[in-house]
Amino acid sequence: MKLEINNIHKSFGEKQVLKGAGFTFEQGKIYGLLGRNGAGKTTLFNCLSGELELDQGSKLLINDKRENGNDNHSEKLAPDDIGYVFSTPILPEFLTGYEFLKFFIDINKDKVSIDKTIDDYFDMVKLEASDKHRLIKGYSHGMKNKLQMLCFMISKPPVILLDEPLTSFDVVVALEMKKLLREMKETHIIIFSTHILQLASDLCDEIVVLSKGRLQKVDHELLHSRDFEDRIIEMLGDEGESQESGGQGKEVQ
């Protein structure tokens, strides 16, 4: 399975944010999306999720069916194909955590196979028993992010977008989330937006930089090299020399 985005443009008034962004993301990998503040990372995620309409371009989900003797099948990326963990959680704060999770399971039980109880899911993210029946309104930012993470673990969308969620977790839960994401990547396409280079190099299989409205792939061999941080800083800090490219993105070495 692949997510293919082609020539995506998005502007707000006269400000061009995405200027022909294109890339192919593959199942089985966690992609780290790096970019400076205002580069358009959240805009790209909102375009992929359907929160924003594209000005131009396409987004396709490609399923490889060649093992059945058929050609690849591609279709437009739909909102149900996306699991989006927002940096600022959007949850019904008038419900308790338990009520919300029960509701979410109920609306998804006919779509996906659910093999865990509500308590099992809460245990996965180390949410205390005393917090399950509290109003979400009283949850901390990190606790709300745990609920967001549980939503895509339940609904199992093929594409998962994470907008800097791990930064609000304590050390123990962050390690658990990393483990879960590594397990899930085999059956999902995971794109992880972060500004923490150490987290990107530790968790991600590939790094993609959003700069000047375009996407650029970083040479995989740089990921765990001594030059990784310097090269990323050089790419993101270079305003004088354009490294833009269209199509499927440019690999930076």
From TrEMBL:
Source organism, top-level taxon: Bacteria
Alphabetical list of InterPro entries matching this protein: AAA+_ATPase, ABC_transporter-like_ATP-bd, ABC_transporter-like_CS, ABC_Transporter_VariousFunc, P-loop_NTPase
Protein name per Swiss-Prot or TrEMBL: ABC transporter ATP-binding protein
Stretches assigned to the ABC transporter domain: 3-237
One GO molecular-function entry: ATP hydrolysis activity
Gene3D superfamilies assigned: P-loop containing nucleotide triphosphate hydrolases
Keywords of this entry: ATP-binding, Nucleotide-binding, Transport
CDD domains (UniProt xref): ABC_DR_subfamily_A
Alphabetical list of PANTHER family matching this protein: ABC TRANSPORTER ATP-BINDING PROTEIN ALBC-RELATED
Species whose genome carries this gene: Sinanaerobacter chloroacetimidivorans
Entries under Pfam families matching the protein: ABC_tran
SMART domains assigned: AAA (SM00382)
